[in-house]
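B., you asked whether I could sanity-check this one before it goes into the benchmark set. Here's the sequence:
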Amino acid sequence: MLNARRVRRKVCFTLLALCGALATIPCGAADVPPPLVAPTSPATLTSESARDLLSRMSDTDVRKMLLEQLDRAAAASPAKSADGRDITGMTGMTGMAGMVGQKSGTARERLAALGAAFVALPSTLREAGVRLSGGAGALSLTALLGYLAVMLIVGWFVERVYGYALRDYRARRLQAPAATFSSRAIQLALGLLLDLGGVVVFALGALAAFLARWLDDEMQRVVLVVLLLAIVVVRVAMLVTRFLLTRTAEHARLLPFTDAPASALRSVVVAAAVLYSVGLVLTALGGAGAIDATSMNAIRAAFWIVGLAIALTATWYVRTPIAELIRGASPRGSLAAWAADLWPVGATIYFLALFAGEMSAILAGTTMATGSGFASVLIVMAMPIVDMALCRALGALAARQRANGSAPGLVAAYEPIFRRVIHIVVIVAGVLLIARIWHLDLFRIAQQSLGGRIASSLVGIGLVLLAAYMAWQITQMAIERRLLAEGERAQDVPATRVRTLLPILRATILVTIFLMASMSILAALGVDILPLLAGASVVGVAIGFGSQTLVRDIVSGAFFLMDDAFRLGEYIEIGDAKGRVEKINVRSVFLRHHRGALNILPYGEIKRLRNTSRDWQVHVMEFRLTYDTSMVQVKKIIKQIGEELAADEDYAADILQPLKSAGVLAAEDSAIVVRAKFTARPTNNAWVVRRVAYDKIIKAFRTSGIKFAHRQVTVNVPAGDAEVAAAAAGAAAAAIETAGRESGKVGKS
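And here's what the prediction gave me:
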């Protein structure tokens, strides 16, 4: 209710301002106008100014002006010599300098005329009031203002009836609690539509009152309709600013501005709307012949100066909050950060360019498209607002999807991609709208610079590029999300099958998208791609026959990957080459040996592959003990150590089956071979468990008095024969020395 009162109060103030502007014009036809001075012919005569002058001049004035124009034309005509040659170039300026001088002279004359017209604006407005109320069957200005008041009262009454009829619906829909941004935005948008419907009903009621009492004077009819349009424009601007920038006690405003910038933006928009509305009214007076063309140009220039001041003041006042919105979470040095820092400079240059273009058109005596500059400013202001609103709605929808379930929905999963698409669509649509407003044929410009075929296919090429970009971004995002779901992989842990195959799949999809986009662009340009496809097929067949090894490697690799024979990070053995899988490509696999060497093996060369990193490993440990060892004691020691390792939290996660004794494996000449084993996961930690088990078993055997057997030679000689014993001992020593030398040679080799 308070908002409605504020709106009505602002509308009343606007009406009072408009009526006050009209009230400066004298009321009634009885007011005696000031003596009219015979107009003089301007330096440069346009069709508009000529019609205006002729409508206000007598026959004597017309003859006088015609003589002035003829004298001026005769003075400006080139001088001729006796033989007919043009001799003007010998005495005056020629070429570019002459044209610049002529244009500058015309601009100075028009500038002086505009200054005089601006000084004479009060008298011009009084004369316009006389003309407005001086026609046949025309009402006086007092009666005309009363007629306008009746129209507005009728419109207000009809709007009140409209609001009363929808009061229950408005209370149900607009006062319901809104928990999310989307529901709040929809609620406010519905309220905006209802308010705009009220404005439409107001305008229809006022028009009905206007048609019920038809005025005979056409100028007054036009002025009244334009006044009603101006009021509607101001009210619509106020409703839109309230929709975007008003904050309630329950919800924040749709555009994330603080109170001070939001209030400033509301004031700027309303001021611009009032300025535009007053300009509409004065333009209607000028079009109806109440104000001459020179005075209209002066008013036009004054309005552009005021509008430029409003735009520049607003730009630099709200530069910081808008820069923060543009920057967002972007790092310093990024494109968004540069745009955030430089946007007020760009906006200032844009406004100054519009102002310079309008002033040039006024001084040159030409006219620009009506409202082109104002509409361009609105589009430039609307582009970031629309982008921000769409992105915030997208973010709210994504947040809702994340909160509803564990698995995010489509919007939540690919939110960054949809944001980029929104940015692209908003920018392209804004550029096309601005070009259309300024009557710029971008396709014709592109045709002149790029060629007709490319220019005519720009839309198709743009759609293909956008589709290819979206397809690649969605693929990239899906693969990155899947890789993130796999978690971080330690350096010594083998990768999963998904982590192994997804990089190859990503490269394949990238090549596929690139080829398809290239073919589609060529087709959009009118190129027949069937010969290209046929030629590519022939070349592919030729390459297949000529490089059978390459094809064998690629096909073998595909089957190896399909069979999940190995993955990144696994330790495999291929013939005499072994190592950890470091890299996989289409043709070969890269193995990093544990000593650092890198083996590159084509898939076609793999005959037998041994994977030692899959599922589990059995570690076998052998001990050579003396014949007098108690096997019961050995089993107890090994079992106890196995239980200790299984209970240790550093090793328990990798042990699948604890360490246990496997009994006697073999009996040799000087020792019995005892085996122990345990099952562990195929990680590097399993080898740590193996080393720790060896260390514990050796210490436990030493503590328990269990001895390890050593290789020895036993020579039995008859008792009492010392010479034979000495000879046997010497032969044994020589045999041992020879065996040692042989073993040393083998170790060196």
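One thing to flag: Confidence is low (pLDDT under 50) at residues 1-39, 79-83, 87-94. Otherwise nothing jumped out at me.
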